[in-house]
Structure prediction request, 239 residues.
Amino acid sequence: MKLKVYADRGSQPSRAILIFCKVNGIEFEEIKIELAKRQQHSPEYKALNPMGQVPAIVDGEFQLFESHAILIYLASAYPGIADHWYPNDIFKRAKIHSVLDWHHSNLRRGAAPYVVNTVLGPFVGIQVNPQIAAEAEKLLLSSLSKIESFWLKENEKFLLGSSQPSIADLSMVCEIMQLEVLGDKERDRILGPYEKVQQWIENTKNATGPHFDEIHTLIFQIKAMLQKPPPGGAINEAE
Prediction:
C-alpha cells in the first residue's frame, strides 16, 4: 500500500517531509490538508492526528505524526536511503537528534510565531500580537546566531561537519524558508548578518533540487500575493 502524506505546503514541517520523499524516490500520495480552511481540525483528520497539526503519514497500518519522527521513520524504514540522511553510526545519529531537539525549542519557537504575528496571521485568519512578534524575533535572531557560530562554526557545508545533508539540515532550512513570506527587505534584514547560514541554505537547496524549489512554490506565491498593494492603490500616509 502506497505511503500517504497528509500535508500543507505552506507548513514548514510538511515541506521537509515532501522534499525528503521526492529526493529519495519514495512513492507516496500527497493528501492536502488546508490549514487556512482549518481542515486540520476536522473529525476525520483528528482521528489520524489528535493534535490537529500537519504533517502526518499513514504507511499501511502504521500511522505517525510529528515531522522529526516521520523523517526518522522514513529514513530507517525505506530501502536505498543514502546514509548521510540518518547515519547508521550511533554517535552521528545522536548528534542529529540533538540538533532536531534544539530546533523545536529554539529556531521554530522564534521563526514560526514571528512570521505569523507579522504578515502571515491575517492571511490565515489569525489576529497578530506585536508583543509575541517582538519576543519571537529575539529568539529567532538568537537561534540564527547560534547556528552561525556553533553548528556551522568551521564553515561546514552542512550541519555537524557533513559534506551532504541530513534530515536535520532539511528540517531547519525548511523552517528558515518561511521567512520568504516577509518580503525581500525584511528577510534580508534578518538573514543578512549570517553569511554562513545563507550559504548553508543554498547548499541544502542545491543538494535537494529541483524538488526543493518545486515544494516551495506555494511559499513564493504567498510572498508575491502579500507584496501586492491593497486594492485602490497605496494608502495616503498623511490621512
User: Anything to note?
Assistant: Confidence is low (pLDDT under 50) at residues 232-239.
